[in-house]
Amino acid sequence: MISKTHILFSLILVSSFSLNAIHVLCEAPAPAPAPAPAPAPASASESQFISCGSPPDGETDFYGRKWTSDSKFLTSSDNTKSATTDYQDPALPSKIPYMTTRIINSATSYKFSVSSSKRLLLRFQFYPSVYGSLENTKAVFDVTANGLTLLRHFSPFITALALTQAYIIREYSLVPVPSGSLTITFTPSSKHENFFAFVNSIEIIPMEDTFKPADLIGFNGQSIDVQGSSLQIMHRVNVGGGYIPPINDSGLARTWLDDSPYLLNSAFGASFFNGIFLGVAIEAENNVTVQHTSDVPEFVAPLSVYRTARSMGPDPKVNEKYNLTWVFQVDANFTYLVRFHFCELQSTKANERSFEIFINNQTAEETADVIQWAGSIGKPIYKDYATHINDKEGDEILWVALHPNREQHPQYYDAILNGLEIFKVNDTHGNLAGPNIMPSKMLLNADAAARSFMPNLL
């Protein structure tokens, strides 16, 4: 069981700059250009990368990806305009598509022709910089896709300030659209005058459906089938490995973050911090071949996710006393699908490494054995579990923890994890929107102070 003494933590966000000088803290710096794009899926020709507010001929980004102008997808250009910003935050991975945007002053829609048989990976990027004389605090708006509410009263400025990030990505997996027509509508908030909407980029990528029924934790014998549901991708981490940029993903242009900031009371390079166990990062040896299979094809996750992992380490006495724990912020009143990516990189036999999986203090799996599940070393596998987050104090947090299974008497008292994804499932009202993440009072004070000292920049 996860001890309550192990799940107490505090999060203090400190910022000495305004949003326009905020750097991404939980993502690694943009990598240097070098690797070629990963092999594209069969449906790559249908993928659409739209740079909003860009020139009619489109643009090419830092990685060589071609972005199309958004103008031809607007159902009406009335009450919209393109805009640019002069400030390029050092945390931006590329100048394109962040430096241009589409400003929207009244409800406006984009219409796209899409695959009628496949799920759609829909991704927005928002860079809440200063565009002309517009006040970025007045960018508050709703976003819907074919009637599904994705964002409500969304403020990119407040969200970025709270997360201390320079830009915000919102990503969704939508159910197939039989009509082959996807309508995305941006509606500025009507609560106050002069509110507006904006968006820097829209990506639409057909994707295979990898979602199957998953056990609902805490409800014995119950499961949820999310194949008929749309999802929001809340978190995606490469456990034990580093930051994976979109260009190195396996065809879906996803970003995989380093898991270190999500470890409970994490401290880089340490196995312990204030008595909290952090485990150790491991990587496949040269004699271990890691490769995709028919059950886990390329589009599920790139091989770089499965070539690295985090284990508890070689000391069984230490491992028995601790849980390896990650902490994620989520929205209350939603059901979540938690996907665990596994690939054994050291053990070769069943019951060499057997462990328990906990989600929010509840047992998701009593006897997790990657070799037993996958059949051999270097063979990837993933497991899905579902959990519901209630609307109670402290319920905006989702905990994932691993602990050795002593009852199975494994050869090694240890656990392993390679990657983790957390998906929010749409509710019964066709809604995926959660509240804005509010910055701490300390952050607001720091931002106000920064504004007074940097008038030329702001």
UniProtKB/TrEMBL annotation:
The keyword Transferase applies. This is Malectin-like domain-containing protein. Residues 1-21 form the signal peptide. GO terms for molecular function: ATP binding; protein serine/threonine kinase activity; transmembrane receptor protein tyrosine kinase activity. Residues 50-425 form the Malectin-like domain. Keywords: ATP-binding, Glycoprotein, Kinase, Membrane, Nucleotide-binding, Serine/threonine-protein kinase, Signal, Transferase, Transmembrane, Transmembrane helix. Its main location: membrane. InterPro entries: ANXUR1/2-like, Malectin-like_Carb-bd_dom. It is found in: Membrane. Residues 35-57 are annotated as: Disordered. GO terms for cellular component: membrane. PANTHER family: OS03G0124300 PROTEIN-RELATED (PTHR34590), OS04G0586500 PROTEIN (PTHR34590:SF5). It holds the Pfam family Malectin_like. The lineage of its organism: Eukaryota, Viridiplantae, Streptophyta, Embryophyta, Tracheophyta. It comes from Prunus persica (Peach). The keyword Transport does not apply. It is a single-pass type I membrane protein.
